[in-house]
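User: Fold this; tokens only.

Assistant: Input:
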Amino acid sequence: MSRPSALDLPENVSARRLETSRGSFAVLDAAPAPHAPPGGTALLVPGFTGSKEDFLDLLPPLTDGGFRVVAVDGRGQYESDGPREESAYAQAELAADLIAQSTALAGGGPLHLLGHSLGGHIARAAVLAAGPSAWTSLTLMSSGAAEVAPAQQVRTQLLVDYLPTMDMETAWQTMRAMDAENAPDPVDAAEGTPAWLEEFLHRRWVSTVPEQLIATAKQLMTEPDRVAELATVALPKLVLSGEVDYAWPVSSLDAMAERLDAERVVIKGAEHSPNAERPEQTAAALMAFWSRSLLGE
């Protein structure tokens, strides 16, 4: 999961609700710097077990570059409400939510869509369902062509197996114990997370609807390869990742970018969450791509 370096909101960022035809969603809405030439709006979609806060470290450099940035909690995710039914979190439902969010943001110039990890699959589904007209570009960040790698499937399956029989607090404590047990150095693992971050990760977990986690976990383990479909959509595309990725091999992301005829960026020193691990470099790569997409390059 992405781990922000801080939770304090910059002065130009407001935590608010985005009202859409499919309901109200919690967002962080970051206004562009007044001195920068306008670059449009970027809609950022978080991944599995994540939230809008995953993108906090990206907001300052992106807004300094002239972009309005809206990071969203999907339905049932952290501060966005959601039903207690797995069917409500089918990928088609989440994609329809994303289309509605994009419609609510329309009219403010170019709209760039970015999905991280699971969010990339949802963004892909939205583009395939609605066509390219709503967006100026699509970025798939650390998000693969199909299901997650076998090692990640094992951990994801644990959630599917245990969440229906546990409350969220018990599940959290069980997972943290497993993480500590499997860490190379349990002492370092226990001391490596600041108290404020541990409290936030805990609060986010227990606030997320369990059916959302179960449904999206199943999606991650069964997602079909839809790259050929996406390749036919006339929309500038970027595949961005770190040098190492536990969910999808980096070599497979290279191959996906080639199949999509997409731009490819690998952020040095980053792993599955370049947004949080190398935000300045990630923001620079995103802004360069977004600017080129506006010029039709």
